[in-house]
Amino acid sequence: MSESRSDFDKYLIPTYAPAPFIPVRGKGSTVFDQQDKDYIDFVGGIAVNALGHSHPAVKEALVSQAEKLCHMGNGYTNEPVLALAKQLVKHTFADKVFFCNSGAEANEAALKLARKFANDNFGKQKNEVISFEKSFHGRTLFTVSAGGQPKYSEDFAPLPKGIKHAPFNDLEAVAELINENTCAVIVEPIQGEGGVIPATTEFLKGLRVLCDKHNAMLIFDEIQTGVGRTGALYSYMQYGVTPDLLSTAKALGGGFPIGAILTTDKFAGAFSPGSHGTTYGGNPLASAVAGKVLSIIAEPKFLAEVGRKHDFFIQQLEAINARFSVFKSLRSAGLLIGCELTEAHQGKAKAITNIAAEEGALVLIAGPNVLRFAPALNISDEEMQRGLARLEVAIKRYLEA
Fold first, then answer.
1. pTM reported for the whole predicted model
2. Domain 57-297 falls in which CATH fold?
3. Beta-carbon contacts of residue 183 (< 8 Å; ≥ 6 apart)
4. Pick the CATH number of 5-54+300-400 from 2.40.50.140, 3.90.1150.10, 3.30.390.50, 3.10.450.50
5. Given a cut of 60, is residue 366 above it in pLDDT?
């Protein structure tokens, strides 16, 4: 192939700043570039590749469905989407599911459903949304406005109105904002882009009480935490707090684009034919792949392994920090892990991940001060050891530079 990194600058709109190398193939949690250099993948497609690269069962599901029916459009239904909906209802609080293509679309649908339900049942004045500082809910104009990071929204004004932001984990602040005009509170059980910051159980339970009191929908954004990431199928199960609506995407397709919202019969009826839709949502290919991914990850033994791997990962990171003292704190749930840098290394997260990539370990950031890990949930012990050893070399190089 003649494609090179320079082709990105020549042909693509510059919404990203990709790495200087181009990955071309992967197996498990190891990927290879055009020069056949191998990298241990702790990025996981940003919490997408839950079963790693080239998983045989996922490949078989994709190829098998591609030989039957790829796409029809939503004037028709199909067998894979019906089977996937049944799986999600079986394994969660939900009665009904709506499928789309991404996390942003799922959150867009969630917020639209909340406003529609409130309008139908309480009147047009009940349209306000409460979100949280440092949150991230997607890149559509509505979801980027709901997100609590102005750097992602300020260049696209005028923004949708009626959205308020409270400090995360501050129940008193929410109590001051919520009122009879609030239609929804949207929250990530763990803020991923915001720095891998878990909500407290008391905070989420308090939001449930406030939403019930004010007839507001409680929306859990589980785009990043869902489908086994935290060691449960969905994070709400570990908190013991059931939302009214849950958004899911990323790992649901294991690499194939798909998103969904899950809700109960009480709220689902606010959408009727023509009130919302999507051309590709719930197409047979995506649904067949997601059904296979979900069937593998939902197994109790698989989810228990996520917890074991979390413990191993944290032990190794603590050992690295004992030698180099670069991390102020480690925050984690399952295989979503954030390492906040000490004051002396603030703003250097990207520099460290760049060196790590040179050493053959792919690591995310969550803002300028946090290294983020979201590897495949089935990453092998050997790959974890190799990747963390490479990270250790990278940190040593960074400190010596």
1. 0.97
2. Aspartate Aminotransferase; domain 2 (3.40.640)
3. 114, 115, 117, 118, 122, 126, 127, 128, 129, 216, 217
4. 3.90.1150.10
5. yes
